[in-house]
Design brief:
The chain is an alpha+beta fold. The longest helix is centred in the last third of the chain and has 17 residues. The two termini are about 25 Å apart.
C-alpha cells in the first residue's frame, strides 16, 4: 500500500492507481480489501478472491500492472516461489484469473521480500532469496521463437522481452528487503499509517522504505525498457 500511495501521490501525471477486487472490478467505497491469508497462486476470478492494486499508465493503455501480495511464481525447476510483494503485467494476471487461476512464470517486474529482524539476518537467507530469483529468470525461452520476460501457460500470454545481456538485480533497482512495522489504528489513507522500527546496521526503515519507494518510482518511469 505504501508503494501504491507513492505512485498515487507523486506520479499522477503518468499513472492511475485503484484498488481492485479478485474479479478485477473496482473495490466499492467502504468495502473491505481482501489480502491473501497465505502464499498462493493467483485465484480464479471472484469478488471474494484476494484483491490487488491496479497501476495504469494515463496515455499508454498497454502499460497496466498488478501489485500483489504473497503470490507464488513458478520457476524453471517447476518449484513455486512466494514473493511478498510483486508486480506483474495486468494482461498476465487477467489471463490467469480468467482461466481458472494459476501461477505466473518469469521474473517479476518488481519483487520485494519482507523480513522482520531484531538482529543480523543469516547470509544464507539472502542467498536463498537470490537463488529463487535466479530460478525465475527465463534463461532459455519457454517456446522457440518467443522473446519474453513473463508468461502464463493457459493462453500463452506473454510480456516483455529477453535481455541480450546480464544486468544485476541491484543495478536494475527492482528488488528490495525491508523490515515492516505494524499498522496503527485509524488508518485513513491508501497507504495507511506505519509505525516504523529499525533495520539493524543498514538504515532506519524510514530511510529504507524511502529508498524502496524511490526505486519503485524509477522502475515505473523506465518501464518501457523491460
Amino acid at each position: 500500500m505504501k508503494l501504491a500511495y507513492t505512485v498515487r501521490r507523486h506520479m499522477t501525471r503518468f499513472w492511475r492507481v485503484s484498488l481492485r477486487q479478485g474479479d478485477g472490478t473496482v473495490l466499492p467505497a467502504g468495502a473491505s480489501f481482501n489480502f491473501p491469508s497465505q502464499r498462493s497462486r493467483i485465484q480464479p476470478s471472484s469478488p471474494t478472491a484476494p484483491g490487488y492494486v491496479l497501476i495504469e499508465h494515463v496515455t499508454d493503455t498497454d502499460r497496466r500492472f498488478e501489485l500483489r501480495g504473497s503470490v507464488q511464481w513458478k520457476g524453471r525447476s517447476a518449484a513455486k516461489h512466494e514473493i511478498d510483494v510483486s508486480m506483474l503485467p495486468a494482461a498476465i494476471g487477467e489471463a490467469i484469473r480468467n482461466n481458472g487461476g494459476g501461477y505466473p512464470h518469469g521474473l517479476p517486474i518488481v519483487a520485494v521480500e519482507c523480513k522482520d529482524k531484531g538482529g543480523y539476518g543469516p547470509l544464507d537467507e539472502t542467498r536463498q532469496t537470490l537463488a529463487r530469483m535466479y530460478d525465475l529468470v527465463l534463461v532459455t525461452q519457454p517456446i522457440p521463437g518467443w522473446s519474453c520476460r513473463i508468461f502464463e501457460t493457459n493462453t500463452h500470454t506473454r510480456w516483455g522481452r529477453k535481455s541480450s545481456r546480464y544486468i544485476s538485480f541491484f543495478q536494475k533497482g527492482t528488488f528490495g528487503i525491508v523490515r515492516a512495522g505494524h499498522f496503527q489504528s485509524g488508518a485513513t489513507t491508501l497507504a495507511g499509517h506505519y509505525s516504523i522500527g529499525h533495520y539493524r546496521n543498514i538504515y532506519t526503515v524510514t530511510t529504507e522504505i524511502g529508498r524502496l519507494q524511490d526505486s519503485f518510482r524509477e522502475t515505473l518511469s523506465r518501464i518501457g525498457s523491460f
